[in-house]
Each structure stands twice: as structure tokens, then as C-alpha cells.
Write a structure and sequence with these properties.
Layout: H1 2-28, H2 30-64, H3 70-87, H4 91-101, H5 103-117
Helix pairs in contact: 1-2, 2-3, 2-4, 3-4, 3-5
Length: 142
């Protein structure tokens, strides 16, 4: 059932994307449309590289502080999806990809994700050092 629903959604999105591309291409002309497609693809590659690198740095920082980088991982996933949408030719996917590049939109996406799937997110790391009451000493008798 889900396979057919996904197939229908992707088919409808592709048909809508192609029709908008042809409509705007007829209005702008072939040259400007191709320039837009190539430019948005380059922007998507740059966005994934730069914003992804910044997200990796934030993830590393949070891990070194012994904290789970849940928000950073969600940001990185949305940046990756946004960049892939920019790389995909089409005006609707470009608009959605540019929206995912905006931090307030990613914040809303994080909030929605945590609202829907918060119970499945992992708990924070355990303390770095165990207290004295948690230590069991074993002595070997020789």
C-alpha cells in the first residue's frame, strides 16, 4: 500500500515539476532556464559542502562535551535534503531546497520532528565518570 502511495506522490510531484519547468521555461526562455538549473545545482552543492561542514563541526563539539548532537544531526539531514532538492532540476524543488537552507525553517522542522518522534530519540549520554558508590572493587588473594 505504502509503495503505491509513494509512487503516486512522486509521480504527481514530477509531473507538476515538469509542467512548471516548461511553463517558466516558455516565459524566461531556454537560456535563462538552463542557467537557473545549473546555478541552482551549483548552489545546492555549495550549500551541502559549507553548511554540512559547519554542522559536522557543531556535531564534533557536542560530542566532545559528552552531549548527544540530536539537533545538529537533524539540521544536517535537512541541509542535505535541501541541497539535494537544489541539485534536482525544477523550480518547485529549488524553492523547497532554499526554504530548508533557512535556519528558522530548519528550527520548525526540528520541532515538528521532535513532536512526532521525540519518544524514539535517545536519552543523553551517561556521566563521564562513575561516582564512588558505583565502583566495585575486587581483590585477588595471593
Amino acid at each position: 500500500m505504502w509503495k503505491w502511495l509513494l509512487f503516486a506522490v512522486f509521480s504527481a510531484f514530477t509531473a507538476l515539476e515538469v509542467s512548471v519547468l516548461l511553463l517558466v521555461g516558455g516565459w524566461l526562455g531556454v537560456g535563462w532556464t538552463l542557467a537557473w538549473i545549473v546555478g541552482s545545482a551549483l548552489l545546492g552543492v555549495m550549500m551541502v559542502r559549507v553548511a554540512g561542514l559547519h554542522a559536522l563541526i557543531r556535531i564534533h563539539r557536542r560530542l566532545s562535551e559528552q552531549e548527544l548532537p540530536t539537533h545538529e544531526l537533524l539540521d544536517m539531514a535537512m541541509i542535505l535534503v535541501g541541497g539535494m532538492m537544489l541539485i534536482t532540476p525544477g523550480f518547485i524543488s529549488d524553492a523547497l531546497g532554499l526554504l530548508l537552507a533557512l535556519p528558522p525553517v530548519r528550527w520548525l522542522g526540528r520541532q515538528a520532528f521532535c513532536l512526532c518522534y521525540g519518544e524514539y530519540l535517545p536519552t543523553p549520554f551517561p556521566p563521564a565518570r562513575a561516582g564512588a558508590e558505583d565502583v566495585i572493587e575486587i581483590r585477588a588473594d595471593t
